[in-house]
Amino acid sequence: MTTIAALLAEARRRIPASEARLLLGHVLGRNAAWLEAHRDDEVAADSDYTALVARREAGEPIAYLIGVREFYGRDFVVSPDVLIPRPETELLVDVAKTKVGAGRTARVLDLGTGSGCLAVTLALELPQARVTAVDVSPAALGVARGNAQRFGAQVEFVESDWFAALPPQRFELILANPPYVAAGDPHLAQGDLRFEPADALTDHADGLMGIRLIVAQAHDWLAEGGWLFLEHGYDQDTAVQALLAAAGFSQIEQHRDLAGILRATGGRGPGAEAIVFPANNQ
Ligand code: GLN
């Protein structure tokens, strides 16, 4: 037997204290407040915990070890099949909220949904949104479907390489957080990114392949007046703006994430008139 305090003290020699608490709370099914109140409780020395601490020490992301990551106030289930939701991606939710008019149905498409964090959050935050989400990875779609079910979110999932397998239809809003890290970017060999699906992070080229394709094809999928918004890298704001402008997008907007970085760029589809959403577009 040992105590909670002793288990935490041992783990703290290897990993940060906050992570030691998270992992022990995960193993015991308790939160940090409970652990604090039960520091002197006797517990069986736990080999699951020791193994998790060792995996964390070797660099595995906390989110994969405990199987969840918070996004926009909700805990999403994640696995190594999906990118771990990032705080900067919450920006796309905030932007979407400003574009989807109150009370009117808006068809929304999330390209490359991964864990489903964007699609599920939009379906829950915007009851007037009818959300479709695509991903090329069946395993990712499994995770996303699970998250939608867990939260009771209505999302239609389609296995598709961007637009390729999507039945013809139009959307008032298209969002994407595509893989935008350039091949050879040193970040890919650091921290959590080493354990995340490479195809969700990088296009194995200059980082703009996915964005170029989406911008080039979006006009076939946007409704009149519809908006496209893309998350992109810290150094891609000028390139993405130029791609949108060259493709005929108007009212181009750029938004900063909480770190002050221009992180989302979007605009209104080519040929868009000054109407927002049709009143009835079932
Ligand atoms: N923002 C992520 C990172 O740099 C990348 C996410 C992505 O490629 N969509 O870690």
List bound small molecules: glutamine
* CATH architectural grouping of the largest domain: 3-Layer(aba) Sandwich
Neighbour order of strands in the largest sheet? 7-6-5-8-9-11-10
Oligomer: single chain
What are the secondary-structure elements, in order, as H or E?
A: EHHHEHHEEHEHEHEEHHEHEE
- General form: elongated
CATH class of the largest domain: Alpha Beta
The class by helix and strand makeup works out as alpha/beta
What radius of gyration results from the CA coordinates? Answer: 21 Å
Helix fraction bin:
25-40%
Strand-residue fraction?
15-25%
CATH superfamily of the largest domain, please?
Answer: Vaccinia Virus protein VP39
Number of helices: 11
CATH topology of the largest domain: Rossmann fold
Explain what you see.
The strands form three sheets. The protein has a seven-stranded mixed β-sheet with strand order 7-6-5-8-9-11-10, with helices on both faces. A hairpin with a 2-residue loop joins strand 3 and strand 4 (74-77). It starts with a strand and ends in a 14-residue tail after the last strand. The protein has eleven helices and eleven strands. Helix 2 packs antiparallel against helix 4 (47-57) and helix 6 runs parallel beside helix 7. It folds into two domains: 2-58; 83-268, Rossmann fold, CATH 3.40.50.150. It is of the alpha/beta class. Helices cover 35% and strands 21% of the residues. Residues 272-282 have low confidence and may be disordered. The protein binds glutamine (GLN). The site of glutamine has 8 residues, from loops.
